[in-house]
Amino acid sequence: MNEYIEIKPDYGNWVSSKLLYVTSVLGLVFLGLSFWKPGFLFPASFFLLAFGYFLYARHQFSPHGGDLQNRIRNLVLEYLEWDGNRTALDIGCGNGPLVIRLAKKYPHARITGVDYWGEAWDYSQGECERNAGIEGVSEQVLFEKASASKLPYKDESFDAVVSNFVFHEVADTKDKTQLIREALRVLKKGGAFSFQDLFQVKKLYGDMDELLLKLQSWGIESVELVKTNELEFIPKALKLPFMVGEIGILHGKK
Prior knowledge:
7 strands; alpha/beta; 37% helix; 18% strand; Rossmann fold
C-alpha cells in the first residue's frame, strides 16, 4: 500500500541546531570538569541555562510550536499597503519564504527575490526555487544573486519593496540608512514599502524620530515605525535585546 507523503518547504529556524549543540556540549563539558574543580560549575550552569533558553526559543519559532517565526515575518506583509498589481522585490530573501508568501497572496503579481547567499548562511538560490516549486508559485517568482548595498535595478523598477531582518547583516555598508535609501531607490513613486529590522538599535540607525525625518527629506510621502517587540503575541522571554526585543517595521508609501 502506497502512503501519501506531503512534501513541505523548509524555511529553517532563527535558532540554529548548531547553537543548541554548542551550548549543550559546553554545558556538559564544564559540568564534568566541575567534579574536578567546583569553580567550573558556574560556566556549566550558564551554558546549560543558555541551552534551555534557546531550545525554548527554537520551539516557539517553529511551525510545530508557537509559529512565531512565520507570524513575525508575515508582519512585513500585513503592513504593506499594496494592491498586489504588477511587481514586488524582496531584499535578502534567504530561502524564499516572503517571496513565496507574496506570490500566494497576490496571484497576479510578479515577485523577485534577491540575496547574496554567502557562506555564512545555509541558504541558496536552488533552495529558494525548490521551495517555490513545492508551494506551486514557480511561474510567478524569480530569484537572483545581488547585494542589498547595490541593487542591479534601475530607479523606480518595482511597485512594492519588502525586506525582513536583513539590513543589519550587510557588512559592506556601515551606515545602514543607506541600505534603506537604496531599497527606496528602486521603488516606484507612489509604491509601497515594508522593512523589518533592528530599527530600535541606535548604534545602527540612530534616533527613530530623526530616521523618520530623514526618510521624509528623501521625498517619501508617508512613513511609520511599528515596534514589533511591543506586540502582545510575542512572549516576554523572547523580547530580550539579543532575540526580538529591538526589531521594528518601517512602512509607508514613496
